[in-house]
Amino acid sequence: xxxxxxxxxxxxxxxxxxxMAAVKGLKRIDAEITLVDRTNHHLFQPLLYxxxxxxxxxxxxxxxxxxxxxxxxxxxxxMAEVTGIDKERRLVHLAGGRDLPYDFLVLAxxxxxxxxxxxxxxxxxxxLKTLTDALSIRARLLSAFEKAEECGDPxxxxxxxxxxxxxxxxxxxxxxxTIAELARSTLARDFKxxxxxxxxxxxxxxxxxxxxxxxxxxxxxxxxxLQSLGVELRFGEAVKEIDGHGLMVGETRIEAANVLWCAGTxxxxxxNWLGVAAARNGAVIVGPDCAVRDWPNIFAIGDVASCDDGSxxxxxxxxxxxxxxxxxVAKVIKARLAGMPAPGxxxxxxxxxxxxxxxxxxxxxxxGFTLTGFPAWLTWxxxxxxxxxxxxxxxxxxVNWSWAWFxxxxxARLLMRGTEEEASRPPDAAR
Length: 431
Prior knowledge:
single chain, 431 residues, FAD/NAD(P)-binding domain
């Protein structure tokens, strides 16, 4: 083993799919690895909307990073905020003044939602990227029904029970469909003064269809499935304004206490940290080996990277892309440390994309063939169960899903004053 003072230092920023794949891919190398993230956990983001709609609890889809990496003695974990990077001196600047030296740096910090230049909308339209976001949205949704039950004002009840989701990508479609099911099935018999089934769920999309990245046939299926759940679809109309009382969609004003934003993403400020070229969405432009141009010891992967798929288009911001890039970058670093030839350019293997539309309905595109309905839903469920990082998560999610499927129940419907409810900006704050 090398002298500890001479061991190479590898810093990975971000504990998402890409960052965790990179760290695990470096399991057996003689180097000092540090994983840095603002949180202390790895989050399974594809199921985050189920926490937001009270189907799952946070612990069902998140696992402490230290627990996942406890069997890797060459890895240290830091819960810290990155404020900048000094490429010349090879230092990562952390909030509080600490500097973290590196020989190799892997950026896997993900992306945030873009409001397309309307930053003021952010305070009125929460996004869904973190556990905090999910708990806040869950509190808003459940508080809306509770407030509607006790307020006695028909106009306010109508406003409280209007839910608008902006953006008809997979997250928007899944969120809108699940909110509709929550209102029409789970909560249907739980209230006396209101009828939750009368809740209005609206999905807005500036484009001409839902799930634009899928084949048109699957988009049409998804639209019909959403409409069968009672979701109103508004395509081809851009959002013009959002305030504390609702929003303008095209020329139509919609009064709503709950507007949820799922439209468009932008990379986190890694390109600014590095002072390098960025794509239109702020993502760091990388070469075929996922390294930053002119800086071969700095890699960017996942949503924070703009990587050519070989046809001139950037790879999509999907979890499988990040995971494959993380594994690939680990191989590149291992080869360099061993003085061996690096692997060839990164090539993404597309094993398919899926989206769920409520109970027992989903769409799946595997390139050569597609699935809809129950077969797609079953495939989606099995794939997501297997992708969860530990057995405990798989078991608890399976039990929750099974119970929900047979009973239409949701086990995470608690509201706590002073925590979730205050953080959520209760719906009546928009009065």
